[in-house]
Structures are given as structure tokens and as C-alpha cells.
Amino acid sequence: MNHTIKIRAGRCADKERADRLYTLARTSLKTAGIDQWQGIYPNGDDFIQDVNDNRAIVMEQDGAVAGVAAAYIGHEPTYDKIFGGQWLTSSQTYGIIHRIAVNPCARNTGLASTVIAHLQKQCLQAGICSMRCDTHRDNKAMQHTLEKNGYKKCGIIIVEDGSERFAYEKLI
What we know:
Oligomer: single chain
Number of strands: 7
Helix content: 25-40%
Strand content: 25-35%
Strand order of the largest sheet: 1-2-3-4-5-7-6
């Protein structure tokens, strides 16, 4: 079935839906035995911070909010050190995607790929040549999504809480 997908900037009015999507994602990760997002992060307040920073993205499917993410062009300090490999570029400015959460009912419909394509378009318009992302070593679904969208696994980074994440980069 074809769905109408729209990507738009997140708004404060989306906070409750974003919080609900993050809660659903936490539950799905826990059910899959993945120790990612098992605290209070991310939540609606993190989404509002993303709104305030002009990073919040809302994915609508057939007119309903079906996913959220933070997507922007900039620099991520946790990407400064990479272990067990190296980045594809040495650029200090790149596209970044964090906190992708998709309603379980909308999985496998292309939402994550659509938000990746959206950021890629922004990067190209700004003259940026790469995009970076990271994910939990056990989050095979996200790894698959990144790899099918042209991302290459580059090594391991350490996030703020001290845990490891697989680091990915895509040349555009």
C-alpha cells in the first residue's frame, strides 16, 4: 500500500505525540532485548529542546504523526573521537540524525528512509558532503535502515552516558 508521507518541522504542539512515540520505541527496544533508551531519555522535553534548536522533524503518514527525529547540519562533539575505525571524511560539519522514533504501526513503510533523504537534500543545498549517525550495537533494525540508505559503519563512538554506539557516515 502506498502512503502519503510528509516531513515537516516539529512544533511545541507535537510534544505529547513525540513523547508517546519515544515511549513506544522504548517498549519495542525492551521487548527486543535492546538496552537502548531504557531510562527517561528521550522524551517530550528532549523533543521540545529539538524544536527550540530547529532540529525537530515530524514525519506524517496519511495526515497522522507517525514518527519524529532530530535532524540538522552541524557538529556532534561525541563524534570527535572514533575507535576501531575512522570516519569517511574529516569534515567538522555534516548532517546529523538522532532520536528517530517511528510508530510500530508505521514501521517498514519508508519513514526513516524519507527523513534520511530529507536531511540529504538539506545537506546538498548547503554544500555539505556527508551525513553521520550512530546507533546501539544491538539495534539491528536501525543498522539495516542506515546501511540500505548508503551509510557505512566507520567504528565506535562513546556517547555522553559512557556507552558505545556504532558510528555511521554517508557520503553524498
